[in-house]
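Closing statement on the glutathione sub-project.
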Amino acid sequence: MRLLQFSTSHYCRKVRLALGYKQIPYEVENLTPGAHRFKLKPLVGLTTVPVLLPESASGPVAVGDSTEILKFLEGHTPEPSWTLGESQGDRRAWLLEDWLDESIGTATRFLYYDFRAKEGKSVNPSWFAQTLVKVVRFQYDISPARVTLARQRLRLALAELGETWRESPYLVGDRLSVADLAAAGLLSPLALIPQYRQEYPWLFERIEEIHQHCHEPLPPGLT
Ligand SMILES: N[C@@H](CCC(=O)N[C@@H](CS)C(=O)NCC(=O)O)C(=O)O
C-alpha cells in the first residue's frame, strides 16, 4: 500500500497508527503542499491528505479521508481487529472518532499553528517554516477569536476524554478502538505546547503508549 501524505499532518499520523496497529506494510509518498491538489482531486475528488492507494488487483484504486481509510482497513485486514463486537460500543467508538476528526482535529490545528507563530517560533524559526505557518494560518483563517474558541473546545474535550483515559487505557470497551487511534493521532500536536504538557500529563502518557503499540515513531515534543 502507499500513503499519500504530508509528513506533519496529524490526520496522516492517525492513519499511520492504524496501519501500524494492523501491521500492514506500506510506503509513504510525501506530497508538496499546493501541488497536492492536482494529484488528489482526480483520484478521490478531495483535496486533502491522507489518501491511501491500496495497490491491489481488486478493490478501490484510492481511498480518501482518514475515517474512510480506517473503515477500508478493517475490511481489508480484519485481524488484529479494532471492532469491539458489541454494537453499542462500536457505535460509540465511531461517534467519538467522527467528533475527534471533525471538531477536535481542527481545534488542535488552530492551537498548534497559533503556538508556532508565537511562543513556539523557536521550534523552527527558519524563513521557510515561518512562511508555511503564515500560509496555513491564512488558509484556515486562524484568527485570535477562533483560537480562543478552539482552546475552549479542547478544554471541554480533554475533561471528557480524561474521565475515561485517566482510569482505563481504552476510551471504549476493553481494547484499542478507532476512538483511541483518532485521539492519539489528532491530539498529538499538543505535545509541543508546554501548557498542555503541564496540565494533562495523562494525555501524553496515553499518546505515547498508543504509538508504541502501533509501532509509530513518537510525535515532536515526545521524542
Ligand atoms: N477530514 C479529513 C481532514 C484531512 C485534512 O484536513 N488534511 C489537511 C492536512 S492536516 C489537508 O490535506 N489540507 C490541505 C488542503 O486542505 O488543501 C480527513 O480525516 O482526512
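Residues 6, 9, 11, 47-50, 65-67, 101 surround glutathione (CB under 6 Å). With this model delivered, the sub-project is considered complete and its resources will be redirected to Aim 3.
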